[in-house]
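User: quick one - fold this with calcium ion bound?
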Amino acid sequence: VAAVLVVEDDAVIGQALETGLRAHRHDVRWVRTGMDAVAAADTGSFDLVLLDLGLPDRDGIEVCRALRERLPGCVIVILTARDEEVDVVVGLEAGADDYLTKPFRLAELAARIRAHLRRRAPHSSTAPVARVGRLVVDAAARRAWLGEEEIALRAKEFDLLARLATEPGTLVSRETLMSDVWDENWFGSTKTLDVHIASVRAKLGAVTQPGGDPVPRIVTLRGRGYRLDTE
Ligand code: CA
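Assistant: Sure. Structure tokens for the protein plus calcium ion:
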């Protein structure tokens, strides 16, 4: 059971989501505007947000950013029309973890929600505490550090880094990362992976304290996958 915030101005889709998710025993709150979504995030706590980007009052990307600030540990899934590819990338950069292209079947959404919530618990193949050079990843606490500095990671960024840190120096294929961090039944493009990799890479690169153990970096093996390396 999850606390789900549905942000959707379309009455038919909103109603269907509310009814469908309640049938899956989720605790659903449905709002129709960006303003109400931000107000809901200010007062409530949610495990998951389904966010339509085309809202009547505020820019969906702005709303996404505002929700991410207010709900740091929450999974945000963008709902988008098929021809809004650019929005997807901007949305992921604004803090979304995943996206679903409309129209989608409720069964698909429910499976995706299950996968997201399952992954909030540490992944079975993730070591409790992994150390790679200066990087320390604590899977149980869901926190990561570079020496003394904690790295501020979003849910999926953490999962991605934790997954790479379980096998440092080893190629982890794109397929494995998509399946372990997102969903074994991934339907969308793997653009999500690229955006998250870029963001984690930037955060690893932003370390300011000199000295100490080497800071690991994410090496791209073009078309194959990624590897976490210390130089
Ligand atoms: Ca809309």
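One thing worth noting: The first helix runs from residue 11 to 23.
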